[in-house]
Structure formats: C-alpha cells, structure tokens
Amino acid sequence: MAITVSLVALFGLVLFFLLRSHSLTPSAAFTAAGFGFFLASTGAAEPINQLTTDLITAISNL
After folding, report:
1. Total-model pTM
2. The predicted structure's pLDDT at residue 60
3. What is the tens place of the pLDDT at every residue in 6-59?
4. d(CA 27, CA 24)
5. Buried-state track 12-27, b at ≥16 Cβ within 10 A, e below 16
C-alpha cells in the first residue's frame, strides 16, 4: 500500500509539471494514464500494482 501512495504522489507531481509546461508527448499520456489508474483503483489497478511491485522488486535485486 505504501508503494501505491508514493506512486500516486509521484505521477501526480510529474503530471502537474507536464501539464504546466504544455508537453503533449507520449510520456505525458503514459504518466496521465498511470496516475489515473493508481488514483481511481479501477479493475485494471490490481495488475498495474502487481507489475509495478514486480518491477520495483526486480530493480532492488540488481
């Protein structure tokens, strides 16, 4: 749960700066979609949370 809250804050902060700088790039779309999934906790949020947890675990094991 702590990882999800941190990612929501991170995605929100990045999205804020991307929108403020008027950057309409694929990375901005990915950031907005990620922020929306984590924030709304839709049915797709669980697989995204699992993928994120797995990626964080994999990175920390390097």
Report:
1. 0.48
2. 86
3. 777 777 788 788 778 877 677 777 877 777 777 776 676 778 778 888 988 998
4. 8
5. eebbeebeeeeeeeee
Query: What pLDDT is attached to residue 2?
Result: 59
The domains of the chain are located at 2-60
Cα 60 to Cα 14: distance, rounded to the nearest angstrom: 22
**What's the 3-state SS for 10-60?**
HHHHHHHHHHHCCCCCHHHHHHHHHHHHHHHCCCCHHHHHHHHHHHHHHHH
**First and final C-alpha spacing in the chain:** 23
In order of 1, 25, 33, 49, the CA distances from 39 in angstroms are 12, 21, 10, 11
